[in-house]
Structure formats: structure tokens, C-alpha cells
Write a structure and sequence with these properties.
By secondary structure, the chain is of the alpha+beta class. The chain contains 5 helices and 11 strands. The chain has one domain: Chitinase A, domain 3 (Roll), CATH 3.10.50. The strands form 2 sheets. Strands 3, 4, 5, 6, 7, 8, 9, 10 and 11 form a 9-stranded mixed beta sheet that branches. The protein has a two-stranded antiparallel ribbon with strand order 1-2.
């Protein structure tokens, strides 16, 4: 198993002579190429599968909703939210119930982050170093609108906060892209062996990502699990 905090520390920074429009166009091309790419399989030196994806089949929000807000993993379907540019695949909807308006929950997350512009695995907390301190976020739902902040007062700061949050002006903010699945998944605790917690995969453009992604204008591919924390 990998025992390091950050798998890839090289972050693609923008050239001084590139305009923001040019950076966004480069990002668009990177995302389109990723949708069409040959199978991508990343394996650790110990033989553990880190990331496994292949050509993506985008579907509309209308088709997604007609499928009970699910994506067909066998067809590698990802729903495209045009307003944000996020592509999302629900691998497992999860245990328990969806969050309701007026409800707050403390949610445990674990993730892989792949920098699509650098074409490299960038960070993860699914490694021994972070095994005892996953990301924990406090989430509120208000009429279908979700807000989330990292909880570092009651739990050790997780990888996402330590890598990105501490350098941000809004250090406890959770990337907007990470909140999107909460409208569709169930966030509870696993009660039986065959009842998996929620798991999603996403392409997140820079506008919906970390502060670093916003500043350097790069998209990321994520695999993220969500589970309600114990009381």
C-alpha cells in the first residue's frame, strides 16, 4: 500500500503569457480528450488499483432523472450538468436516506484526485498515512441547497484540508463540486455487508474545484465515497 500524503506534488501552473480564455480553452480540450481516452488504469507499486476508467458515455440530466437519478456503470455513463460543467457517475447510491431540507449531517469522505491537465494522480486519503483521519464535513440542506465546511475542531484535519484548505482564504470550505452528489445520494451508515456506502466519480472543472485548481485552471477527476459519521 502507498504510505505517502500526496502521490503527485507537481501542480500545473499557468504560463504568464497565457490568457484566462486560453487556459479555459485548454481545459475544455483536456476534458473532451479525457471523455474519449483509452482505458486508464493506475496501479500502485504494490499492485493496488488506484484508478480505473475508460471512454465515458455522457448523458443528459433528463435521461439521468428518467433513470431514477442513476447512471449505468456498465455503459460508463456520466451525467453532464451543463451549468457547472461537472460530469458525475453514481457508482453506488449509498445506505440510509437522502438528506432532507432543514437537516444537518456530519459526513465522512474518502477520495482519489487525478489532475487531468498534468495527467497524474495528485492526492488521496485512501492511503495508510490518512487511514485514521479522513475528511469530515458538516453539511446543511436548505430547500435542496447544500452547504458544507470541513470539521477540523472535532476531528483531525484530513488530506483535502491539509493540502488545500490551509492556504485558502476560506480554509474550511469544501469544493463546490464535492457538494453536487448530495442531491442524489443517500448518506447513512452501512448496516449489512452487502449495503455499500455512497460512491461517485466526477470530472470537476476548475471553477468547481479547489482553490489551487481555480488559480491554476486545471480540471480534476475524482472518486469519492460519502458516509454519515457516528454520533
Amino acid at each position: 500500500m502507498l504510505g505517502i500524503m500526496v502521490i503527485a506534488t507537481s501542480i500545473v501552473s499557468c504560463k504568464d503569457d497565457e490568457s484566462y480564455a486560453e487556459q479555459k480553452e485548454k481545459e475544455r480540450k483536456v476534458i473532451n480528450a479525457f471523455l474519449q481516452r483509452d482505458p486508464l488504469l493506475l496501479v500502485s507499486k504494490d499492485g493496488d488499483t488506484l484508478l480505473n476508467t475508460s471512454k465515458i458515455n455522457p448523458i443528459s440530466v433528463e435521461q439521468f432523472e428518467a433513470q431514477d437519478s442513476m447512471t449505468d456503470v456498465s455503459k460508463n455513463e456520466y451525467v453532464l450538468f451543463k451549468n457547472s460543467g461537472i460530469y458525475m457517475q453514481i457508482v453506488r447510491k449509498g445506505a440510509g436516506e437522502k438528506m432532507k431540507s432543514g437537516e444537518t449531517k456530519r459526513i465522512i469522505t474518502r477520495y482519489w484526485e487525478f489532475n487531468m491537465l498534468a495527467d497524474t494522480l495528485q492526492s488521496s486519503d485512501v492511503v495508510p498515512y490518512w487511514a485514521t483521519s479522513p475528511g469530515v464535513m458538516d453539511v446543511s440542506c436548505n430547500s435542496g441547497t447544500f452547504t458544507a465546511t470541513w470539521n477540523i475542531d472535532n476531528y483531525p484535519p484530513g488530506a483535502m484540508y491539509q493540502i488545500y484548505g490551509t492556504s485558502s482564504t476560506s480554509a474550511k470550505s469544501v469544493p463546490n463540486g464535492w457538494v453536487v452528489p448530495l442531491s442524489y445520494i443517500k448518506v447513512g451508515r452501512q448496516k449489512t455487508a452487502d449495503e455499500g456506502i455512497a460512491l461517485v466519480r466526477m470530472i470537476v472543472p476548475h471553477t468547481q474545484g479547489t482553490e489551487m485548481a481555480k488559480n491554476a485552471v486545471f480540471p480534476c477527476f475524482y472518486e469519492i465515497s460519502y458516509q454519515e459519521a457516528r454520533d
